[in-house]
């Protein structure tokens, strides 16, 4: 077994994130949050555990951090609730689990994994997903667990309007979006996971790209693993994650070339602001974004760590 053939990347959302919009102490908190989540995932890989468990550990750490829009810290929807989406996929056998519009579950990504492994289905939604979680012994968290002051303030500003807002475009100082992780383990298996609270003031059961396999999340050992963040409607229409995998599989492009085409050409053309993290079967990592910034971090094949926010 080659002990260095492991690598991981994570993100904590993309959008209008510029240096003058964050205080130095807030910036440090985000960097620390990213680093801790990255290390949680990398520790799993170092123990020779699976890339699936690594992305799970990293995403759960981000879900537990109130700074990020996932799990604790998820945004408020139109009726003042938190409805969360998450997905996880194994590149080895294309097994996938996804949950959308679920409330009161501490770690939606863990529920996505249970759906992948304990149900005959890929995606469960809202009340049904909640019932499944209860059957699986998931702890139900009270609404107060998900309350954070800054998300509440964001919602108060637009709750009586028809607007809904991407977590990181209009009020940049408050903006953290979706979280995600991709990893390659020592057996050459790829995995991806994504988790989000979606958009502030969303209604009618709106679901974005994060939880949709092939749009916001995808993994295939033959090509790559991807987790996206950005304006979900545009990412859905672009089938972003699977498109990158297809460009590698059918056109023979490198990961970097495929990411460039999708993030900097195709998405830009239709106004799809955001970015993604990607890792290929050889452990190459790309973290492209067409927005001002993206919370992101990686540890590459050489064990080198990078934690960044801005361009
Ligand atoms: N893509 C997510 C969604 O549309 C939002 C985000 O990445 O911030 O739900």
Describe the model.
With 311 residues, the protein is an alpha+beta fold. It has a single domain (7-301), classed as 4-Layer Sandwich (Glutamine Phosphoribosylpyrophosphate, subunit 1, domain 1). The protein is 32% helix and 23% strand. The protein contains 8 helices and 12 strands. It has helices at 24-46, 51-63, 108-118, 126-135, 149-158, 232-238, 240-251, 255-269; strands spanning 7-15, 84-90, 96-102, 123-125, 179-184, 190-196, 217-219, 224-230, 274-280, 285-286, 293-299, 305-310. The protein has an 8-stranded mixed β-sheet with strand order 4-3-2-6-5-1-11-12. Helix 2 (51-63) runs antiparallel to helix 3 and helix 7 (240-251) crosses helix 8. The longest helix has 23 residues, at 24-46. It is globular. Aspartic acid is lined by residues 13, 166-167, 177-178, 196, 198-199, 208-210, 216, 229-230, 232, 235. Aspartic acid binds at residues 13, 166-167, 177-178, 196, 198-199, 208-210, 216, 229-230, 232, 235.
């Amino acid at each position: 077994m080659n002990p260095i053939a492991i690598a991981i990347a994570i993100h904590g959302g993309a959008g209008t994130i510029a240096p003058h919009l964050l205080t130095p102490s807030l910036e440090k908190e985000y960097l620390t949050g990213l680093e801790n989540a990255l290390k949680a995932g990398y520790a799993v890989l170092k123990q020779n555990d699976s890339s699936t468990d690594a992305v799970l550990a990293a995403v759960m750490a981000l879900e537990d951090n109130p700074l990020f829009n996932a799990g604790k810290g998820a945004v408020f929807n139109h009726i003042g609730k938190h409805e969360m989406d998450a997905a996880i996929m194994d590149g080895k056998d294309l097994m996938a689990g996804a949950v959308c519009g679920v409330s009161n579950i501490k770690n939606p990504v863990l529920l996505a994994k249970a759906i992948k492994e304990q149900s005959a289905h890929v995606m469960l939604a809202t009340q049904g997903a909640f019932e499944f979680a209860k059957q699986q012994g998931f702890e139900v968290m009270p609404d107060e667990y998900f309350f954070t002051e800054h998300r509440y303030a964001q919602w108060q500003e637009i709750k009586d309007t028809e607007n809904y807002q991407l977590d990181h475009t209009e009020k940049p100082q408050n903006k953290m979006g979706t979280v995600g992780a991709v990893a390659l383990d020592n057996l050459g298996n790829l995995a991806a996971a994504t988790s989000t609270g979606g958009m502030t003031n969303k209604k009618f059961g709106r679901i974005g790209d994060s939880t949709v396999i092939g749009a916001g999340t995808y993994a295939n050992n033959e090509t790559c693993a991807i987790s996206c963040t950005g304006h979900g409607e545009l990412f859905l229409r672009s089938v972003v994650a699977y498109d990158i995998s297809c460009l590698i599989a059918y056109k023979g492009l490198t990961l970097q070339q495929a990411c460039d085409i999708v993030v900097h050409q195709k998405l830009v053309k239709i106004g799809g602001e955001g970015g993604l993290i990607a890792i290929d079967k050889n452990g190459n990592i790309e973290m492209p974004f067409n927005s001002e910034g993206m919370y992101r971090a990686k540890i590459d094949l050489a064990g080198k760590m990078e934690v960044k926010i801005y361009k």
